[in-house]
Amino acid sequence: MENFNTFMESSSPYFAAVAQVGGAMLGLVFVAFTFNPRALGTRERNLAQQTFADLLMVLVVALLLLLPNVSIGETAGLMIAAAVFGLVQMGRNLRRLLHCGADAAWNRTSMRRHYSLSLLGHIGVLVAGVLLLVQGGAGETMRDLLLLGPMALLVSGSRSAWLLVVSNAENTDR
Question: Which of 21, 78, 85, 136 gives 20 to 30 Å between its CA and that of 126?
């Protein structure tokens, strides 16, 4: 417990910065696609939903880890619940993408390119939550995953947001 408290104390500036960046990106994605939702086709809509989910997960996890006076069990439980919710949302987006009638080559390539980093981040947060629950905050692997899981989701969300902006620009040029 003491190791975890020390880790959280020393990592709070990191999580505060991650929360700020995640919140800012989340807001930008929300505003950008609120103004022109018709520019999004089925593929882009699914990617936009996943981008939003990734950035929301970054914000939730970072804020969760900044909450004062929350037990390790509560933090772990909320992280596990958030990660499971994110993975379920990802599964729904992928299933919808497969059934939208897009060509098979795009589906295989898109899933690997657009969703693998997101999947890695969600699984990292899930495993960090499980390790936090099991080890009580003592493991270095758990601490590494707490740092890297949200970062993977932030990179995934930023990359996907950029792809959506480029795709939207191409659609408006036509």
Answer: 21
